[in-house]
Amino acid sequence: MLKRILTIAVLAAGITCFAGSGVRIDIDGVKNKILLKPGKSSKGLNVINSNKYYLLLKSAMNLSDKWQKFSFSFTPNKDGIVNIHLKGIYHKVKGAKKLTEAWVAYDNIT
Predict the structure, then answer these.
(1) How far apart are CA 100 and CA 88, in angstroms?
(2) Residue 102 has pLDDT above 90, yes or no
(3) Which tens digit of pLDDT belongs to each residue from 3-16?
(4) β-strand partners of 19
(5) Neighbours of 27 (CB within 10 A)
(6) Helix/strand/coil for 79
(7) pTM of the shown model
(8) How many CB atoms lie within 10 A of CB 88?
């Protein structure tokens, strides 16, 4: 079986409004049962939750409005479709009952 390492570099800028923002990246191999082994990630980007088919990476909150470079890698156990979702981190706005997703801009994804 051929194993490949996928490395993705992402530039992200937090857009601060009322609360800080942070990077959240979901890597999902659940539908096609693709096992995901986490690899290296850049400083400031941590694997928070990992099960055999799903990885969740997060940065710290309160990113500045300057572009920041993040990178990460993972190894799938087989060929197939893996979904990568680029998001902001959920946070609770003062007085709100539900969590809100913070806005983050992504650019130069390779």
Answers:
(1) 9
(2) no
(3) 444 555 566 554 44
(4) none
(5) 23
(6) coil
(7) 0.76
(8) 23
Beta bridge partners of 13: 105
What residues contact 91, with CB distance under 8 A and at least 6 apart? Answer: 19, 20, 61, 99, 100, 102
Residue with tokens 């197939």, as numbered in its chain: 80
The span from the first CA to the last CA of the chain, in angstroms, equals 25
> What does each C-alpha distance from 3 to 34, 56, 75, 96 come to in angstroms?
12, 21, 7, 45
Q: What is the pLDDT of residues 81-92, one digit of tens each?
A: 999 999 888 877
Q: Which two tokens stand for residue 32?
A: 């096609």
Beta bridge partners of 87: 24
Residue corresponding to tokens 């909150």: 61
